[in-house]
Amino acid sequence: MQLVNIVATVEMEKPFDLEELLVKLPNVEKAHFWVKAKIPPYNKYTAFYGSGKFLITGAKSEQELNNVANNVVSFIQKHSVDNDIKNININNRVYMDHLDFEVDLEKLIVELNDYDASYEPEQFPGMDFKDEYGLTYLLFGSGKITITGVKSLDNLEEHVDEFKELIRSKSDY
Q1: What mean pLDDT, rounded, does the chain reach?
Q2: pTM for the whole structure
Q3: How far is 116 from 17, CA to CA, in rounded Å?
Q4: What fold does the segment set 99-170 form as a domain?
Q5: Helix or strand or coil: residue 62?
Q6: Is there a common fold for 2-91 and 99-170?
Q7: Which stretches of the chain are assigned E, i.e. beta strand?
Q8: Per-residue pLDDT for 173 more than 70?
Q9: Range 2-91: architecture per CATH
């Protein structure tokens, strides 16, 4: 299983004045009720909100997340925006995994009628499956699995193994 994305909200000590950010920071754009920027050198998408929070997506480890957050704060401080990190909250982790076999999703979805699963190939090429732990699995015919909704690492591998075993048992493998 491989971590491929972390989405986190960084809570700052003070609210942001979005108009101030638009004036003081280079390469920012207003987007409805927030300001967006790609801040070097990471160039990870950063959304600033008037509440004093900013969003980070695309980090591939918690260390990278902390580095990006500290880099954003250094960048805004360098451009005369005085604010410091109060807290970092991880909203979602996205993992990739795979089965060691291909899956006939049309047949599988019939076997999963007692579960929170859906497969609409005209809309999306993967099956959507939600487990009792709040995790969402996107399963593709190739056996590739995308796991979203991971807020806690407690028992993650056990939950994913349960899902994989369920798919194996319903797929005759």
Answers
A1: 94
A2: 0.84
A3: 43
A4: TATA-Binding Protein (3.30.310)
A5: helix
A6: yes
A7: 2-12, 28-31, 34-39, 44-49, 53-59, 85-98, 116-118, 126-130, 136-140, 144-150
A8: no
A9: 2-Layer Sandwich (3.30)
